[in-house]
Amino acid sequence: MKRMASYLSAVFFLLSPCHAAFLSGTGSIYVLQVLDDRVYGQDKDWFSLVGVTSLGACRTIPSSGYVALRIRDDAKGQRMFANLLAAKTSGTPLTVWVDDTITDSDGYCFVLNMQ
Questions:
Q1: DSSP class of residue 67?
Q2: Which tens digits make up the pLDDT trace of 40-99?
Q3: Distance (Å, whole) CA 47 – CA 84
Q4: How many whole angstroms separate alpha carbon 111 and alpha carbon 75?
């Protein structure tokens, strides 16, 4: 039984999909956009960082060429928004991490972490 479990574990490890790579970008906040949930729907707030023009397959804003990063409408997103607002006010640069396979229906990436 142990031999069979070891064999199956090895096969599963070899056949399992690769882990997604996290992509990061650093810059000061170019724009921080908050949209009404009742009109635009949930998870539509976004921001962009100066100089971050590419993060894998994440979509960019045509007018500026910077990557648009979505913020989720949950408790973690609210904490992120507070950090974004403080960074925008003080001009402090931020580093954000995304996984370009985690997007909304429009193809915009969600921020997973920031520092």
A1: B
A2: 998 999 999 999 999 999 999 999 999 999 999 999 999 999 999 999 999 999 999 999
A3: 9
A4: 13
The pTM of the full predicted model, rounded to 2 decimals, is 0.80
| Contact by Cβ (8 Å): 46, 70 | yes
pLDDT tens digits, one per residue of 22-47: 999 999 999 999 999 889 998 999 99
Residue 33, number of CB atoms within 10 A of its CB: 12
Partners of 96 in beta bridges: 25, 114
Provide the residue ranges of all domains of the chain, joining segments of one domain with +.
19-114
Structure tokens at 104: 């909304």
**3-state DSSP of 2-36:** HHHHHHHHHHHHHHCCCCCCCEEEEECEEEEECCC
Chain centroid to Cα 32, Å, comes to: 14
